[in-house]
Write a structure and sequence with these properties.
heterodimer; A: Amino acid/polyamine transporter I; B: alpha+beta; 3 domains; 5-stranded antiparallel β-sheet; 49% helix; elongated
Chain lengths: 363, 534
């Protein structure tokens, strides 16, 4: 049943670096500092590191699962749990990815509303953005990957702006290290997890990688790069903000950009947010590509049709989410589900697949 | 001699007319009677009868045109019949090398005829299609027997055309000064002379149901990826169109995405550039009647590299390329950024700069977008007017437009000073693109950016940029990615993209082309390391 993907649709192994990195770095970067500092305070950078480590472990598990299977997650689900239960799991995965997309897009619109255009019409912006998404995804996985690649490379210059807050930073804030309990750190780690979400799309695009075994190190590098970016950002923010300020700053990264001053540019956050379109787009494209691919595998419809249907759903839901609280609620819920998917479900699937293959070998 | 010819000409014209009327009125009868006269052809098969009718049909069709000449020498011993198209034949060759030599000799067979004539290209055939084609390509048809399909065709083409001149579109200060002309054969000559190797292959295809345009596909056999050649030939063969006037027709018809504003084949008028890319392993298309060759597969970056880059030292060339790329970016983004910033993001600009901007805009009654569109339109008008006028008047237009209108518009407070500077710079920057077609594209894509900037400021700008990026990612040239070496990222091909590294590091041909011989030279052999003072 699983058909090999034609070679001209495959992507080089090293591009997995950009795929993993681009989907992990998303809307979370703009304001994750407040969440992680809530429980662990200035020690939260340890949580960032810790979860970076966990993510790498999970990627290792994903690769182990995928190497044994012959296809994407839907095929593996079917092999492990049978058509109906497996299909149910896959459907859940697809729906989760769909909501992940909605959250990212809606939150980004929220950022634009708060920081740039309070009057912007949600439906208009969603419409244009989704047309753009359609244009990317209908170009196939290679186009999606290309967008991921450029979505990582082009906005890289934003990292340079972290130089400016250093002038005002006080890194003694970080001392003393480890003055929080292990439990607090654990909670903080859980909160960190939300910023790392997205790499589970590996389950879908794994068959589209040329020589997938070779890509594993690139996936790890991608995740490590994400960890590095978060770590640097965390440390700089912790040096820049006091703990009290941090608790009251929703979009800490954006607030940092406020003080960037160059001879020809002030108020850098406008440029930052605009550039962030380039970061958000691959995020949305990759998850929509994954979920539409999932729908195709599950129901046997054309991916093109699935894509259009999903985009319409996103558009409608986006328009229905009118106030800040509902966006927040969506964020929290999707993050929680995402968290449980990655830290509970992936190990679970890993163990099942290991057992399955041992049994099959004996048989 | 000429007099003789003219006399004959008149006679033949008269006889033509009479023949024509005869044939058209009572063609069957006359043919039958003619046939009965001929003892030789009494045993002809049906097929050849049909084809003979075809030949006479063709001849009668041709005879309707006044530049077609058909006559016999009326020599009882040695009769022959000559037909040709006056407008296509070089009369001098006809007289000196054909008529003078066969007029008085007793010639019985076509082989003898072939021996007698001094023209090197003589074809003896009875294929109707071929005869028609050759006559319409400047061949003189000589028949020993008017009723027979058999005939000899001697090349006596009249070659009129422009002389080879210096390149005007892709001018370069240093380097070769030859450029292509309209004649395909001259162009092929220019290329062949630069690549005197047997591996340079030329495949000719005929395209266009009316124009019958000769299209030549060139490649170097041992280097090129056969797939590219096949793609090109296949696509050219698939063209269904009545006229192919210029290579631009072909370029548009065989483009991967015909709805893209971007040219997907590089066009050049420089034979040196063509020779250069052939050696890289690309495929070149030449079209008879067009002074522009097409090169494929190509990449976006290649459109911003001038062939002059290879004549300059690599540092200079690299800097020029970067300046060109910067210029393009500037010319696309400067006015949309102006619109975005002045309309929505005043806060972005530092106070000192703001003062300048506000004073220059204080008297302008229009919103920025109108101001920009007004000025951009003015610039486009100037360009368009300049392009349609002769060079010298064009310059005047530039001065009148640029200085008079510009200054007047600012003084009348219709546009701001700052914007005038930006628009003028942007226009200037867009001229640095070496390839004219890409130049036009850049002119065009500025406008969607303006609209998006007006809509959502900087966010709109980046959104539009994303559309552009996706379009470029999806675009292919002869099936090869257009955005290479950026995406898919190929480090090795970056040696000749944004910058041009020295020739010593150009040992590999572009990976994009998947050439049969990836190495230009053996780098190890070329580079022997020497110690100091040795």
């Amino acid at each position: 049943m699983p058909t090999a993907i034609k070679e001209r649709f495959l992507v080089s192994p090293f591009l997995v670096f950009f795929l993993v990195n681009s989907i992990q770095i998303g809307i979370g970067v703009l304001g994750f500092q407040r969440y992680i500092a809530k429980s662990a305070g200035y020690d939260a950078w340890i949580a960032v590191l810790a979860f970076g480590f966990i993510v790498n472990l999970l990627i290792w598990m994903i690769y182990n699962i995928m190497k044994k299977g012959n296809g994407d997650i839907t095929v593996i689900h079917r092999d492990l749990f049978g058509k109906w239960i497996g299909g149910l799991f896959s459907l859940f995965f697809v729906v989760y990815l769909l909501f992940f997309t909605i959250t990212v897009l809606r939150t980004f619109i929220e950022v634009i509303q708060v920081w740039m255009f309070p009057e912007i019409k949600v439906w208009a912006f969603s419409l244009v953005f989704l047309i753009l998404t359609y244009y990317v995804v209908s170009g196939g996985f290679r186009t999606v990957t290309g967008m991921s690649f450029l979505g990582v490379v082009l906005p890289l210059y934003l990292l340079l702006t972290l130089w400016f807050p250093l002038e005002f930073a006080n890194f003694r804030n970080l001392l003393p290290i480890l003055d929080h309990s292990l439990k607090e750190l654990a909670i903080s780690t859980k909160d960190t997890a939300l910023s790392y979400l997205g790499f589970e799309t590996l389950f879908m695009f794994y068959p589209f990688i040329k020589q997938p075994e070779k890509s594993q190190k690139w996936a790890h590098f991608g995740a490590l790069f994400t960890t590095l970016i978060y770590l640097v950002l965390t440390i700089v923010s912790f040096g820049y903000y006091s703990e009290k300020q941090l608790a009251g700053t929703v979009w800490a990264t954006l607030s940092i950009w406020k003080i960037v001053e160059m001879p020809f540019v002030e108020r850098f956050e406008y440029i930052g947010i605009a550039t962030y379109v380039l970061v958000i787009l691959p995020n949305i494209c990759l998850s929509i590509w994954s979920s539409s691919r999932g729908v195709k595998q599950l129901f046997g419809v054309k991916q093109h049709t699935a894509l259009i249907v999903l985009l319409v759903i996103i558009f409608v839901v986006n328009c229905l989410l009118t106030n800040r609280t509902s966006v927040d609620m969506l964020n929290t819920n999707v993050s929680h589900i995402g968290f449980y998917i990655i830290v509970l479900y992936i190990p679970f699937l890993f163990i099942i697949s290991q057992i399955h293959h041992k049994v099959r070998k004996k048989g | 001699m000429k007099k003789w010819f003219q006399k004959k000409n008149k006679e033949s014209n008269e006889s033509n007319e009479s023949k024509e009327s005869n044939e058209s009125k009572e063609s069957k009868e006359s043919k039958e009677s003619k046939e009965s006269k001929e003892s030789k052809e009494s045993k002809e098969s049906k097929e050849s009868k049909e084809s003979k009718e075809n030949l006479s049909e063709i001849m009668s069709r041709l005879k309707k045109s006044s530049d077609f000449i058909c006559y016999s020498n009326n020599h009882s011993l040695n009769p022959f019949y000559i037909s040709y198209c006056k407008s296509l034949v070089n009369v001098e060759i006809l007289h000196r090398d054909i008529l003078a030599l066969i007029n008085d000799k007793p010639i019985r067979t076509y082989e003898e005829l072939k021996g007698a004539i001094l023209v090197e290209d003589i074809i003896i055939t009875s294929e109707i299609d071929k005869i028609e084609k050759l006559i319409l390509n400047g061949f003189v048809m000589i028949q020993l027997d008017e009723k027979d399909n058999m005939c000899a065709l001697a090349r006596a083409e009249l070659q009129i055309g422009r002389n080879i001149s210096i390149p005007e579109v892709e001018f370069s200060v240093i380097g070769p000064k030859e450029s292509f002309v309209e004649s395909l054969d001259s162009n092929l000559n220019l290329i062949r002379r630069r690549l005197p190797i047997s591996d340079l292959q030329i495949k000719e295809v005929m395209v266009g149901t009316l124009t019958k345009t000769r299209v030549a596909v060139l490649y170097i056999e041992k280097i090129v990826d056969k797939e590219n050649v096949n793609t090109v030939i296949q696509r050219i063969n698939d063209i269904e169109f009545d006229q192919i006037i210029d290579s631009a027709y072909i370029a548009q018809m065989i483009a991967d995405n015909q709805n893209s504003p971007f040219p997907q084949l590089l066009d050049t008028e420089r034979p040196d550039r063509v020779a250069g890319v052939l050696a890289e392993g690309k495929v070149v298309i030449l079209v008879n009647g067009s002074p522009h060759a097409l090169i494929g597969p190509t990449t976006l970056i290649e459109f911003f590299s001038s062939f002059e880059d290879y004549f300059l030292s690599w540092h200079v060339a690299s800097i020029f390329r970067i300046i060109r790329l910067f210029a393009v970016t500037f010319s696309i983004f400067s006015t949309p950024i102006y619109v975005a910033v002045v309309t929505y993001h005043y806060e972005l600009i530092p106070k000192e700069l703001m003062v300048t901007l506000v004073t220059s805009r204080s008297n302008v009654p229009f919103p920025p977008i109108l101001e920009v569109i007004f000025l951009e339109m003015a610039i486009e008008l100037l360009r368009e007017a300049g392009a349609r006028l002769p060079t010298k008047i064009g310059q005047t237009i530039g001065i009148v437009g640029g200085i008079v209108i510009g200054t007047a518009a600012v003084e009348a407070a219709l546009v701001s000073n700052v914007l005038l500077i930006i628009v003028a710079l942007a226009a200037l920057a867009s001229f640095t693109t070496p390839v004219y077609k890409m130049n036009n594209t850049i002119r065009l894509i500025r406008f969607p950016f303006l609209l998006f900037a007006q809509l959502w400021g900087l966010v709109g700008l980046v959104l539009c940029f994303c559309f552009l990026l996706v379009h470029l990612i999806r675009l292919t040239s002869l099936g090869r990615p257009f955005l290479e070496p950026i995406y898919p990222l190929r480090w090795a091909d970056l040696k000749d993209a944004f910058i041009r590294l020295p020739f010593s590091s150009q040992s590999k041909r572009p990976i994009l082309l998947r050439t049969k011989e990836p190495n230009r030279f053996n780098k190890k052999q070329a580079k022997e390391k020497k110690d100091i003072d040795e």
